[in-house]
């Protein structure tokens, strides 16, 4: 039986947006006092609802298309529960089963060879 090595990576990026991903709070934290760029959505207060930053959506679609992903017409966000001291609302908003982009790839050239390989991209979210 031939073995195949499969390596999975989870890559995070920080977008250069003026507002956070799910609220209108500023991302400019340099020189600011702690907790000044927060709002009821950031803190997960009852009754507060997140609103997706349009610029973030545009960046995510660009990234997914660059990675040859199919863009889902319907996308779903979930709450992932964590109990960390620096996460007062005890959850992160994420995607899994219906992410923005799926089934992509990145093609790379192997050094000192004409051979190309495809690296599969499961999802972009």
Automatic annotation (TrEMBL):
GO terms for molecular function: ATP binding; carbon-nitrogen ligase activity, with glutamine as amido-N-donor. Residues 5-125 form the Aspartyl/Glutamyl-tRNA(Gln) amidotransferase subunit B/E catalytic domain. This is Aspartyl/Glutamyl-tRNA(Gln) amidotransferase subunit B/E catalytic domain-containing protein. It comes from marine sediment metagenome. GO terms for biological process: translation. Keywords: ATP-binding, Ligase, Nucleotide-binding, Protein biosynthesis. The keyword Calcium does not apply. InterPro entries: Asn/Gln-tRNA_amidoTrfase_suB/E (IPR017959), Asn/Gln-tRNA_Trfase_suB/E_cat (IPR006075), Gln_synth/guanido_kin_cat_dom (IPR014746). The keyword Metal-binding does not apply.
